[in-house]
């Protein structure tokens, strides 16, 4: 049902998302055991191919693969070797020679995972492509919301910040709306442009408008390297108009859930006291990230395990 | 000495037998249902040589032109070395294998840097249609104005890209809600609007004759319409493929298509459905002419990430059929846009004929193209109208009302 690759949440059917989230719940149970390792991907090779710096997503995928007993290989392509002229396709051919079963790829260009998926037989998991999508992040966010509210249907999710340049936001927007949630976005005009109308979202321009009746407030990281050329005058200005501080949190009510894909900029998009508040689920997101990535690897690779139906979640298998 | 039987000659009504030229083996072709028209002229061709042997060679370009019905190519200075001195033109071959003629538009500014004028007067001695900005509008508006005033005195046109120098580098697809979905940065229509408005204002002041293109948007068409109403000497062209394709092709949802296909990474980008309709209407209205906008690219320039791929598409071998298809089979409009209109821009009368089969249907497959490059944005498109043969060196046809050029 999940298909060959995980490239994007746009177009992914509701049933598939539900299957992934249900499987992730099983995987989370594995993580609570004393022995946190199960055998279904024994002998399979999962390569992480990261063209951009990442600690969280990469370690999360690697840990997920290890817990399923897969071998992992980390292929870091620093910018200098790209500068030396090796193309994405050439790098991929090198990896092809190592006969991987799945490749987790992060790349600065939208569509780079699609290029690999079309040209190579292994499963491709998109770990972030440019400003396009970051599907495993979207799924883990959806799992976190489902944990608290039981269902995504009818939930009101506010995404605040640089939606224009956010792959996290795009994946969440597609996934959440497929599951019946309503998504409202807010941010400065340069970060929530009118062109976002192509996505199934409502666009507002002040944070107060969106937090008031939100069940979930999802904050996006302000990326300092993107502040050039007049996108934003200063982080102080951003914090003043779009930062989630305590008064704004109170406006949202006690039951609101505050999310952030990390790493957070305390005092910019999120007040320090808000990050540490009871409403913040930032650390749950990390835990759920491992479970969702286990589910994805399991669903993409597990059913191919020789001699078996997808099973093997018992340590004794 | 080909003999074509039962063919309708352009401008005539009754089919007849025509013999072209006086050399070559004597072969007879059944021209039933076909039309013999003045051969086509591409007003926007990246030749690929000198400097880019992986894109095109003189042989491959000549063969591609013949296969597409083009007898004359107006070439851009996007080659290495950049032709900006008379010595470059003295060395350059002007006829390709197969008899296809090259009409270079050398660089308007030295090295295409937009800082100092090339020796436009000395360049004008080489029978050229004009000088070109090479597809990159100069940042310095004073340079552009001076180039217009200077070139005009030597009877040369200027081939200009309607773009704003700063906005031009922004984005890789049309800036629209659709770009937001794909996670690609968009290039705004304002790029074309500002660039074209600047050119129009400077033409109004200088009287220079200008060829602008590729025009990609409805706003661009509207500006050209106003310039035409003012009788300003500005002629716009559109790329044939932009009459058929719009931004949605980047999603790759159609049969045989795939998302982020770098063949549709173009500059200017394919814009909206409405923009495309406006371009088609402009061709119908004879407001603009059509270019093949031939831009061959090597595999290593295209088999990479969409955002990093070198923009451009080949065009010679699909331009006629794309135009005829987009115009709903209006052959008169297609020949006007691809042949008669562009011929008026050449510095000398030119001959050449093309044998067209307007009723044929075919599917574009770049693997069978004669061009060295395989990057045709129209790959997989079902088109109407086919080029059967091209005779670039054939002169006049006795009794034909259109005797080669429609030279002004």
Describe the overall structure:
The complex is a heterodimer of chains A (317) and B (408). By secondary structure, chain A is an alpha/beta fold. Chain A folds into two domains: 14-132 and 286-304, Aspartate/ornithine carbamoyltransferase (Rossmann fold), CATH 3.40.50; 135-284, 3-Layer(aba) Sandwich (Rossmann fold), CATH 3.40.50. Helix content of chain A is 39%, strand content 14%. Chain A has helices at 14-31, 56-67, 79-83, 88-96, 112-119, 135-149, 167-178, 207-211, 235-242, 246-252, 272-275, 282-301; strands spanning 45-50, 71-76, 102-107, 123-129, 156-160, 182-186, 202-204, 216-219, 257-259. In chain A, the strands form two sheets. Chain A has a five-stranded parallel sheet. Chain B is an alpha/beta fold and 408 residues long. Chain B has a single domain (39-348), classed as Alpha-Beta Barrel (TIM Barrel), CATH 3.20.20. Chain B starts with a strand and ends in a 17-residue tail after the last strand. The A-B interface holds A 10, 87-89, 107, 109-112, 114-115, 118, 129-133, 164, 167, 170, 193, 195-199 and B 175-186, 258-260, 300, 303-308.
């Amino acid at each position: 049902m999940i298909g060959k690759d995980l490239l994007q949440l746009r177009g992914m059917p509701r049933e598939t998302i539900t299957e992934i989230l249900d499987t992730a719940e099983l995987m989370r149970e594995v993580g609570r055991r004393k022995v946190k390792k199960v055998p279904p991907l024994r002998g399979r090779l999962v390569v992480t191919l990261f063209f951009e710096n990442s600690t969280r997503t990469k370690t999360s995928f690697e840990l997920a693969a290890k817990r399923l007993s897969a071998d992992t290989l980390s292929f870091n392509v620093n910018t200098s070797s790209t500068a030396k002229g090796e193309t994405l396709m050439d790098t991929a051919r090198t990896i092809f020679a190592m006969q991987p079963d799945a490749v987790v790829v992060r790349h600065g260009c939208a569509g780079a995972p699609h290029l690999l998926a079309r040209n190579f037989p292994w499963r491709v998991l998109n770990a972030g492509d440019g400003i396009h999508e970051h599907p495993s992040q979207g799924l883990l966010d959806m799992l976190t919301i489902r944990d608290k509210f039981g269902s995504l249907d009818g939930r009101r999710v506010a995404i605040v910040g640089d939606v224009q340049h956010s792959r996290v936001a795009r994946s969440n927007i597609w996934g959440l709306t497929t599951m019946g949630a309503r998504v409202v976005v807010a941010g400065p005009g340069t970060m929530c442009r009118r062109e976002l109308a192509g996505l199934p979202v409502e666009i507002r321009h002040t944070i107060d408008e969106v937090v008031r009746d939100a069940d979930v407030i999802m904050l996006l990281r302000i990326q300092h390297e993107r502040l050039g050329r007049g996108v934003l005058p200063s982080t102080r200005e951003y914090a003043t108009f779009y930062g989630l501080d305590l008064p704004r949190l109170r406006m949202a009510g006690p039951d609101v859930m505050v999310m952030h894909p990390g790493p957070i900029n305390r005092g910019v998009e999120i007040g320090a006291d808000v990050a540490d508040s009871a409403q913040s689920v930032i650390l749950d997101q990390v835990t759920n990230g491992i479970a969702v990535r286990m589910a994805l690897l399991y669903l993409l690779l597990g059913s191919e395990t020789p001699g078996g139906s997808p099973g093997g979640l018992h340590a004794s298998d | 000495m080909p003999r074509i039987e039962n063919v309708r000659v352009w401008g005539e009504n009754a089919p007849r037998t025509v013999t072209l030229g006086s050399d070559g083996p004597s072969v007879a072709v059944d021209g039933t249902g076909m039309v013999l028209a003045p051969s086509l002229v591409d007003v926007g061709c990246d030749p690929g040589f000198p400097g880019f042997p992986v894109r095109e060679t003189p042989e491959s370009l000549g063969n591609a032109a013949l296969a597409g019905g083009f007898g004359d190519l107006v070439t851009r200075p996007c080659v290495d070395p950049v032709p900006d001195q008379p010595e470059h033109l003295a060395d350059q071959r002007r006829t390709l294998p197969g008899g296809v003629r090259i009409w270079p538009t050398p660089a308007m500014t030295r090295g295409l840097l937009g800082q100092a004028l090339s020796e436009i007067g000395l360049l004008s001695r080489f029978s050229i249609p004009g000088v070109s900005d090479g597809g990159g509008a100069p940042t310095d508006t004073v340079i552009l104005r001076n180039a217009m005033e200077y070139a005009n005195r030597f009877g040369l046109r200027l081939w200009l890209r309607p773009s704003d120098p700063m906005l031009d580098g922004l984005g890789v697809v049309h800036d629209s809600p659709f770009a937001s979905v794909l996670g690609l940065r968009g290039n705004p229509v304002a790029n074309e609007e500002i660039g074209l408005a600047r050119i129009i204002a400077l033409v109004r002041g200088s009287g220079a004759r200008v060829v602008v293109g590729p025009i990609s948007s409805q706003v661009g068409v509207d500006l050209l319409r106003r310039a035409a109403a003012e009788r300003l000497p500005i002629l716009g062209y559109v790329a044939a493929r932009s009459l058929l394709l719009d931004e949605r092709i980047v999603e790759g949802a159609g049969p045989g298509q795939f998302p982020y296909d770098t063949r549709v990474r173009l500059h200017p980008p394919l814009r909206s459905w409405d923009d495309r309709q406006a371009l088609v209407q402009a061709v119908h209205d004879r407001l603009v002419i059509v270019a093949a906008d031939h831009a061959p690219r090597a595999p290593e320039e295209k088999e990479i990430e969409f955002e990093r791929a070198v923009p451009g598409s080949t065009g010679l071998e699909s331009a006629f059929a794309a135009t005829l298809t987009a115009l709903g089979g209006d052959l008169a409009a297609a020949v006007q846009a691809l042949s008669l209109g562009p011929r008026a821009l050449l510095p000398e009368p030119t001959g050449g004929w093309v044998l067209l089969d307007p009723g044929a249907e075919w599917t574009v497959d770049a693997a069978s193209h004669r061009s060295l490059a395989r990057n045709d944005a129209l790959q997989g498109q079902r088109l109407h109208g086919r080029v059967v043969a091209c005779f670039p060196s054939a002169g006049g046809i006795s009794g034909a009302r259109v005797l080669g050029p429609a030279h002004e």
